[in-house]
Design the sequence.
């Protein structure tokens, strides 16, 4: 469905549990042969995929905008970001290392080597229909794992085009299998019960992540979980307001607020709050809203349920005393549009300060000192990303170490990068994607002890 119009774009296959198991059979048959292929060859598949994807940026960007809604410019950005994971892991494939040592007792040669985990189930969300797949499939291929990709039901087209493109790289049959389905619990349930599956990597809500972890306990699967976020955005007393406002626009409106790293709660020092709110409101009001394919910046939200949820959070905050500065009204017409919305003087115990908004709404609360800012920021079950604006190095260093977060942006509203470990603490997840850490999630460690002759 095109969220800018509500029209059906295309109908795709709806896989059953039996289809999912057929995909696992293919993955499982291909695993041993794939693991024997050299790291350099695995890297070459990824490198070819990177080149192909970059060459087809416009095609993929158009598909992403059509089925997901973000602006064409942002969709091009997603294609480049997605491609970076293919390039990065093509480079990492050749650097899988091991260790050799002599045991302290002098009785053993000790060799530590790394092996692919085995067939993986990769479940991805709709907000980055391409990048969330390459961030998992890239390291899986680099490590020598076979896989079943289960994209979100709301964005199947990008993933189907990606799987077809991977076939063009010459990737052996069975290495990457893709199932589109409206019956995710059935398909995933059948796979989690099958002992041939060795790993689950999931990006999505904390609620579903918790369910899947329970399912993964059955066969003691390796798991990587990228779950919800509730990122604080802190503007200190000494912050440079130009940078803070730019950062806020980026951290809030990227992907129309539909990112797990999106700034969710804005904590602004009481001396900066008035100017920050005025300037951010000005920027929000100037954002053109409309279909992404028409070149507009603020596209639609993914569906009506998402829009109603965002609106309910705004209404709840206003009814509890928050001040609506701009936005906050559902526009007439087709598509699931919601305007950039700014709320000031938001009470700490409102739903909007505690729940993931997943929309273009910025709630602002003030604080009086650094200690209070850190306490407010850490008062959450989530710990994925945080943003901090200050010109003072001591303050930045002190607050960095006090913030409970997997990722921290200082004087920037964007931290995601293929070369850096993406992931959270607390209920935001387990494991890391990207960076040198990303490939480890798809490798197991084997230790071999070789007897040394007794002297
Ligand atoms: P979001 O709120 O971003 O849609 P979800 O956690 O609902 O996040 O969905 C993320 C992914 O998880 C999607 O691919 C969806 O199909 C899948 N999913 C949802 N529920 C289940 C489930 N019970 N078992 C397996 N996968 C699921």
Sequence:
């Amino acid at each position: 469905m095109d969220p800018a119009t509500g029209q059906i774009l295309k109908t795709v296959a709806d896989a059953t549990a039996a289809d999912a198991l057929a995909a696992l059979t293919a993955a499982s048959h291909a695993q041993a042969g794939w693991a024997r292929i050299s790291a350099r060859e695995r890297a070459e598949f990824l490198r070819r995929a990177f080149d192909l994807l970059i060459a087809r940026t416009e095609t993929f960007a158009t598909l992403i905008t059509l089925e997901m809604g973000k602006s064409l410019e942002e969709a091009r950005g997603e294609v480049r970001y997605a491609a970076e994971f293919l390039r990065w892991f093509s480079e990492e494939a050749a650097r899988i290392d091991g260790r050799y040592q002599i045991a302290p007792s002098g009785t053993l040669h000790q060799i530590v080597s790394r092996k692919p985990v085995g067939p993986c189930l990769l479940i991805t969300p709709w907000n980055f229909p391409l990048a969330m797949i390459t961030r998992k499939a890239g390291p899986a291929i680099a490590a020598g794992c076979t896989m079943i990709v289960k994209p979100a039901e709301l964005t199947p087209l990008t993933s189907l085009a990606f799987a077809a493109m991977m076939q063009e790289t010459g990737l052996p049959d069975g290495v990457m299998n893709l199932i589109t389905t409206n019956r995710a619990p059935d398909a995933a349930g059948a796979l989690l019960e099958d002992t041939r599956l060795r790993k689950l990597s999931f990006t999505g809500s904390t609620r579903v992540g918790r369910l899947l972890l329970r399912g993964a306990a059955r066969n003691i699967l390796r798991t990587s979980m990228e779950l919800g976020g509730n990122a604080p955005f802190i503007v200190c007393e000494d912050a440079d307001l130009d940078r803070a406002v730019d950062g806020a626009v980026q951290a809030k409106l990227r992907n129309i607020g539909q990112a797990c790293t999106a700034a969710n709660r804005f904590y602004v020092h009481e001396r900066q709050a008035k100017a920050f709110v005025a300037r951010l409101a000005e920027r929000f009001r100037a954002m053109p809203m409309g279909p992404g394919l028409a070149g507009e910046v603020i596209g639609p939200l993914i569906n009506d349920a998402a829009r109603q949820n965002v609106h309910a959070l705004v209404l709840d905050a206003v009814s509890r005393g928050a001040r609506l500065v701009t936005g906050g009204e559902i526009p007439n017409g087709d598509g699931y549009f919601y305007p950039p919305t700014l709320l000031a003087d938001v009470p700490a115990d409102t739903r909007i300060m505690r729940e993931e908004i997943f929309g273009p709404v910025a709630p602002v609360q003030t604080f009086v000192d650094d200690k209070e800012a850190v306490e407010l920021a850490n008062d959450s079950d989530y710990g994925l990303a945080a943003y901090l604006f200050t010109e003072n190095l001591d303050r930045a260093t002190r607050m960095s170490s006090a913030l409970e977060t997997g990722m921290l942006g200082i004087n920037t509203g964007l931290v995601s990068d293929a070369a850096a470990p993406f992931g959270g603490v607390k209920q935001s997840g387990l494991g890391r994607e990207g960076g040198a850490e990303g490939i480890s999630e798809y490798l197991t460690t084997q230790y071999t002890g070789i007897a040394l002759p007794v002297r």
In short: The pocket of adenosine-5'-diphosphate is lined by residues 123-126, 150, 152-153, 184-185, 188, 204-205, 208, 211-212 (CB under 6 Å). The first helix runs from residue 17 to 36. The mean pLDDT is 97.
